[in-house]
Amino acid sequence: MHQNYYFLKQLAPALHQRIAGKIFIEAFSQEKDEIILVFADAPAAEELSNPFLIKATLKSNFACLSFPDKFERARKNSVNLFTGLSGNEVEFLSVFENERAIQIRFQDGQKLVFKLFGNRSNLIAFDPDGNATLLFNNKLAADKSVTIDSLNRPIDQSFEAYVRNDMRHEVLFPTFGKLVNAHLSGLLQGKQSAAERWQIILELLEKLESPPYYLTKIELVPVLSLIQAGEMIAAYNDPVEALNAFYMSYVRLDGLEKEKSDLLRKLRKRIQQTNNYLTNTFDKLTELENAVKNEELGNIIMANMHAIPERTEKAELYDFYRDKPIVIKLKKDLSAQKNAEIFYRKAKNEKIEIARLNESIEARMAELEELQQHLAGVENIDSLRELRAYVKKSGLNQSKAPVSQDELFKKEEFLGYTILIGRNAKNNDLLTKHYAGKDDLWLHAKDVTGSHVIIKNQPGRNFPELVIERAAELAAFYSKRKNDSLCPVIFTPKKFVRKPKGLPDGAVVVDKEDVIMVVAKGS
C-alpha cells in the first residue's frame, strides 16, 4: 500500500513541508529504472545548504519513493536528466484527486509528476500548460499523451451516490486497493442497511486518512499498510519515515524470503483459480442435471405426435415424467418426428457433456489436493537450498500443463457439432490462429467488434444449415450487434482468414465470405 492514494494523500503535504521554497538542483540516474532528485536551499555550491533527496525506484516489479540522507554520485555511468528544471524554485507539492500521482509545481509553472501506477510507474515533466514534455521511462509511450487535467478523477462519493450504485463501494472508492477492500468486506459482512454500511465506510476512511502507518509482513514480504494486517513490525506517524523504513525492509529481503514468498503467492493464486473453476463447473453440472433432459423432451414429443400441429413453433404437451403440462419449443419447418430427433441428438451431447464435467471435476479435485500439499510443504521450508531442491523435485518450476479448449473458450455442442467462442481480443487470436483448422468454419458479426466463432469440421460432412445458423446466432450475441433486431454474420472456411503482422489483437483479414442474417441468441 506504499502506492495507495490515501497514503500518498498524506505523503504529499509532508514532502511539501520539506521541499517547498527549495531549489531544484539536479536529477541524475546511474542505475537503470532509478533516478535521484536533489533539492537545496541555495543553488549548487561547494556544499549544498540543507539538501533533500528523493530517490524514485521505478522498476516494473517494484516502484517506490525513498528519501536518503545522502547519496554519493558516481563519476562514471551517471547521466543528468530533466535539466530544464535546474535552478527552479519549488512552489508546492500535492496529490491528484483520487489518483496515485504526486506533483511538484515550480514557480515558472512547470511540473514534475510521480505517476505511481504499479508496473506503469513513471516520472513525467509538464510545461506550464499542463502538457507532458519529458518522460523518465520512454518505453511507457502512452504517458506522452497524459495531461495534468486528466490526472484528476472527480468522483461523487456521497451517500446518495452509494445508494444509486447498489451499495457497491468499489465504484465510489476505486482507490481503496485489494488489502483495504478485503478488510472492508469483513467489516460489512452481514450488514444489510445502507446507512449502517455507509457509516462503516466513513469510519474506515477516517482511519485511512490519518496515521499511524504500519510496516508489516504479508506472505513474508514487507508491506506498508494503513490498516493492521499480517505480521506487525513497526508503526510510524511520519509518512516519510514510514516509507523509508518500508523501502529498506523490501530491498533487504534475502534470497529465501523472495523466492519463498513468490512461490507461495503463485501457489495460492493457483488454488484460488482451481476453486473458482470447481465452483463454476459444479454449478454448470447441477444446472444440467436438474434441467429437463433432452431425451425426455424427445420422448414427450413422440408420445404426443398426434397433438402437435404442423409448422408450429411451440406446443403444450402432457409431460408424463412429471404429470403436468410442458411447453416445448420446436422448429416450425420440421415435422414432429424430426424435432424429436434433434432432441435425441442433443441428449447424446448432453450425456457427453455431463461425463466431461465429472471427469474435469475429478481431475481438478486431485490437482487442488496436490497444490494444497505443496503449499503446506513450502511453508515449512526454512533454507534456500531445501526450497530449490523441493521446487525441482516437485516440478513446480515447470510451465503449467496446456489448458484445454473447454477452459479457454466458451463452448456449445449442437446437433453433434462443436462450436467454440472466443472470450476477448487475445483469446480470439488464440482461437483463430492456433485452435482452428483450415477446414473449420469461421464466423463473426459483420462490421462490428465481437467474438470469433468456430464450428469444428467433421471430415466428409458438409456443415448443416441449422448448425451454421446456431453458430451465427452466438456470433451475433457475443458482439456489438447483440441488441439489433437482425444481425448480419459473415462465415467462411478458416483458410480464408488471415492475420497480417501489425494488426491489433482480434483483428483479421477475410479474403472470401458469405453472409447470413440471424437474431442474436446466447447459450
From TrEMBL:
Which residues belong to any copy of the NFACT RNA-binding domain? 415-510
What are the UniProt keywords, alphabetically? Coiled coil
GO MF terms on file? ribosomal large subunit binding; tRNA binding
GO cellular component terms?
A: RQC complex
Annotated coiled-coil positions are: 344-381
Q: Which GO terms describe its biological process?
A: rescue of stalled ribosome
The protein's name is DUF814 domain-containing protein
Source organism per entry reads: Dyadobacter flavalbus
